[in-house]
């Protein structure tokens, strides 16, 4: 009986150690590389892919794919080929299992490697949920994307590029390649209706014309 109880406690301790190790890997490995394991909300992902105008058969690359939710949505709802780069092994396993369970494994590829080594040569859409430092470091690779490719960045605009479309409410920034020099400020300026001057406003007002009095009045 004592041996049986000891075996139970040993198993519980071992399970606790395994679980702790898994949690540590899930959170600490991405942080070690400077990317917190913060998944994008599903509504953001759906709006971002709509904004990027993903077409069937296009290649969607997610830099920092996490549990693969972007890849699954792109494959399932848009018929895209989805490739994810993720540094953390457990995230890669979760992404692979998710694609398997949703029946899109044939359209999804998970690559366990640093996002700086991503092959973007065939990408039609590049999805990023990264901080500005990572985005800035990726700029040379993004500049080499094929003409017509789109870059979608959540939360942070791409410094030095003017977006082609912006969802201010969800902070989704879409860019087309070749990039257009500028910024979010230049984008907003182009789309703001300038306020009329006082002179223009008076000229456009339909004021009643006052007839001068007739000598017979």
What are the SSEs and their pairings?
Blueprint: H1 2-32, H2 42-51, E1 59-63, H3 69-78, E2 81-85, H4 89-101, E3 108-111, E4 125-128, H5 132-143, E5 150-154, E6 165-167, E7 172-176, H6 184-191, H7 198-204
Parallel strand pairs: 1-2, 1-4, 2-3, 4-5
Antiparallel strand pairs: 5-7, 6-7
Helix pairs in contact: 2-3
End-to-end gap: 123 Å
Strand content: 5-15%
Number of helices: 7
Oligomer type: single chain
Alpha-beta content class: alpha/beta
Sequence stretches where pLDDT stays below 50 over 5 or more residues: 11-29
The main sheet orders its strands as 3-2-1-4-5-7-6
Shape: globular
CATH topology of the domain at 42-191: Rossmann fold
Please provide a written account of the structure.
The chain is α/β, with parallel strands linked by helices and 217 residues long. The chain has helices at residues 2-32, 42-51, 69-78, 89-101, 132-143, 184-191, 198-204, and strands at residues 59-63, 81-85, 108-111, 125-128, 150-154, 165-167, 172-176. It has a domain at 42-191: Vaccinia Virus protein VP39 (Rossmann fold, 3-Layer(aba) Sandwich), CATH 3.40.50.150. It is built from seven helices and seven strands; from the N terminus they run ααβαβαββαβββαα. α3 (69-78) links the parallel β1 and β2 (81-85). α2 crosses α3. The longest helix is centred in the first third of the chain and has 31 residues, at 2-32. It is globular and about 75 Å long.
